[in-house]
Amino acid sequence: MADTARAAILPYFRQSNLKTDNKLDSGFDPVTIADREAEKAMRAVLARHRPEDGILGEEFGQTAGTSGRVWVLDPIDGTRGFISGTPTWGVLIALSTETGPILGVIDQPYIGERFIGDTDQAFVQGPAGRAKLGTRDTRSLEQAVIFTTFPEVGSKVEATAFRAVARNAKLTRYGMDCYAYALLAAGQIDLVVEAGLNAYDIQAPIAVIEAAGGIVTDWQGKPAHNGGRVLAAANADIHAAALDILKQY
């Protein structure tokens, strides 16, 4: 599926004449032909190889299955980055049961990096070859590197909550979409804090990060695979430090 999505998407990336539609009446939630064609291509693979499994995709919704397993697909996570030409978007693929994801893929087609995590292993396959994934050992919030996609995060309250964590961290960065979660799994950063997510935004990152040794919950420390407010952390100590602040909101 990841290979098929790459082939569907890359011809459209950084094309000046790419048409963008807006899925919101109020605000801006872009979608392109690349989003739709990539999800169609992945669904076609599943129809051939896993017809008994369900599908939840961002662009074409839910398809019921009979196996109890669901493929959760975001053909381009970070379409705003995609239409801006930044290589921070990615293809997200997760295989999930009722308790959450058991396999995740974060694929960045333009760079050629594919981050994979399941119950047995976590690794990245890229131009430099294959390498094992492992999260960082930063234990102090004061030494942490924290990411979120939008400075406003979500609501006014959620933005305030993020800033309360960020002002205690060493470095705050913005705008990376799903690639921030990949960097956390690869041991480059310590925290990702976001809000307003859907299941297809977070299930693949959960599987990859947990396989690499990290933790992903909501802002109350509960499972986050249905989306909403999300805290991803490199280890239990840094997770607890951030969670103590976020719980207040």
Describe this structure as you would to a colleague:
The protein is α+β, with helices and mostly antiparallel strands and 249 residues long. The protein has 2 domains: 2-132, Fructose-1,6-Bisphosphatase, subunit A, domain 1 (Fructose-1,6-Bisphosphatase, Chain A, domain 1), CATH 3.30.540.10; 141-246, D-Maltodextrin-Binding Protein, domain 2. 29% of the residues lie in helices and 31% in strands. It has 7 helices and 15 strands. The chain has helices at 2-9, 33-49, 79-84, 156-166, 179-185, 199-211, 236-246, and strands spanning 20-22, 30-32, 54-57, 61-63, 70-77, 90-97, 100-108, 113-118, 122-126, 129-132, 145-148, 171-174, 191-197, 215-217, 228-233. The strands form 3 sheets. Strands 4-3-5-6-7-8-9-10 form an 8-stranded mixed β-sheet, sandwiched between helices. A 5-stranded mixed β-sheet has the order 12-11-13-15-14, sandwiched between helices. The radius of gyration is 17 Å and the shape is globular. It is an enzyme of class 3 (hydrolase).
In short:
The chain starts with a helix and ends with a helix. It has 249 residues and is α+β, with helices and mostly antiparallel strands. A hairpin with a 2-residue loop joins strand 6 (90-97) and strand 7.
The beta-strand count equals 15
State the CATH class of the largest domain: Alpha Beta
Low-confidence stretches: none
CATH topology of the largest domain: Fructose-1,6-Bisphosphatase, Chain A, domain 1
The CATH homologous superfamily of the largest domain is termed: Fructose-1,6-Bisphosphatase, subunit A, domain 1
Q: Please give the radius of gyration in angstroms.
A: 17 Å
How confident overall, as mean pLDDT? 96
